Amino acid sequence: MQNPTVAIIGGGPAGLLAAQHLAEAGVPGVAVFEAQATPGRKFLVAGHGGFNLTNGEPTAAFGPRYGAQQPVFEQFLAHFGPEELRRWATDLGISTYVGSSGRVFPAPEHKPAHLLRAWLQRLADLGVRLHTRHRWLGFDGATGLRLRDEQQSTEFTIEPRATLLALGGASWAKTGSDGAWSQSLAAHTGMALTPFAPSNCGVEVPWSDFFRAKVGRSPLKNVALSCGSATARGEVMLTEYGLEGTPVYALTPAIREALAAGAPAQLLLNLKPELPVEAVAKRLQQARRGLSGAEVLRQTLRLGPPVPTLLREAVPAVPTEPAQLAALLQAVPLLLTGLRPLDEAISTAGGVPFAAVDGHLMLRSRPGTFVAGEMLDWEAPTGGYLLQGCFSTGAWAALGIRQWLQG
Ligand SMILES: Cc1cc2nc3c(=O)[nH]c(=O)nc-3n(C[C@H](O)[C@H](O)[C@H](O)COP(=O)(O)OP(=O)(O)OC[C@H]3O[C@@H](n4cnc5c(N)ncnc54)[C@H](O)[C@@H]3O)c2cc1C
């Protein structure tokens, strides 16, 4: 195989956007190597649910979504932020809109597969060569990359002038993002990677058999969930193993920290976050005499099943006195024993630490090799911040690669 100028390993959003930016800037010989039979599998999985490409909130509010990595992400977002991402989609013929939650979606007539197809066509038109079923095995000397053609069962080395690793995180292994790259990278560079951890995932609650049988899967709408000082609002789903839902995912970093301090950790569930506790107590007081506890909750606060069963599960004795019951409704204690397994998580924390790369995401230990996307050690909540982070790091690394090629 002819040596490409730039080899991009991993055909997810980070790698494909970098390929597009490099080709559009006139860099010849951009090649993408993807281990799977088709690129963008996790991108398509993201499209199965609500496909949040990015978020419509002001760019200034974006930075804090990236937690400890806020300063570097502000730089990436300034280069390729939500506006640029929406323009990119429009340029591919995919219009977007901001939903009521602030999330940015492709217009309903555009399926995720349409977007990916238009994108791959654009890359082909720009002369980007896509090699599917080509797995990166590791480095070969100072500049070489060892690859295996999975179809032909052959191995070979290429010597690009620059490399971008965009190999993804370590969840949803069936999409190709299996994290296996971590061993090759650590072995070849001696780099200490941050261990992978599930992010944006469900939690495990040791429900009783009775609760599991009676409640099963039930939504709790418009609630707030707190872990320590972190709080998130939205819809929580009670499941047979614990909890799922946007507020749970948003609290993953805080929950991980609480569990590390010693399991079980505790979450507090507020079933009426929109009302002050006094107002909740007042409504309870106004309940007609003779109603059962469940009827009081339903008639005064519109809290139907499964709330009464949930309260009995959470505390040994559910108070009937209005002020005490109101306090419980706004802080139902739920014990957690752990996070759901890594492979189920929407995203992965851990990977290549930012200390291992320079300001343009080039590996300090291997000049000419850059890193982008979820394989870097950052995390962000759902709501479009994940894809935005992958696109922004891909665009930033592409800029760094151009400067590197110019010497
Ligand atoms: C169920 C689900 C829903 C999601 N929904 C959203 C959403 O709505 N909004 C949002 O912002 N984010 C969402 N995400 C997250 C988003 O899809 C990922 O963060 C994003 O795809 C990561 O992009 P990436 O380019 O870094 O890596 P990936 O998309 O994981 O791509 C990495 C690629 O590298 C390839 N690869 C791995 N190892 C090798 C190797 N050795 N050689 C060659 N190729 C290799 C893989 O096959 C893969 O194609 C969702 C994720 C999941 C699982």
Task: Explain this structure.
By secondary structure, the protein is α+β, with helices and mostly antiparallel strands. The chain has 2 domains: 6-198 and 342-405, 3-Layer(bba) Sandwich (FAD/NAD(P)-binding domain); 203-339, no CATH class. Helix content is 35%, strand content 23%. The protein is built from 15 helices and 20 strands. The strands form 5 sheets. A 7-stranded antiparallel sheet has the order 17-16-13-14-15-12-18. Strands 6-2-1-10-20 form a 5-stranded parallel sheet, covered by helices on one side. The chain has a 3-stranded antiparallel sheet with strand order 3-5-4. Strand 14 and strand 15 form a beta hairpin. The longest helix has 21 residues, at 385-405. The radius of gyration is 24 Å and the shape is elongated. The two termini are 25 Å apart. The model has no long low-confidence stretch (mean pLDDT 96). The chain binds flavin-adenine dinucleotide (FAD). Flavin-adenine dinucleotide is lined by residues 9-15, 33-36, 39, 41-43, 45-46, 49-52, 135-136, 166-168, 172, 176-177, 181, 346-347, 373-374, 384, 386-387, 390.
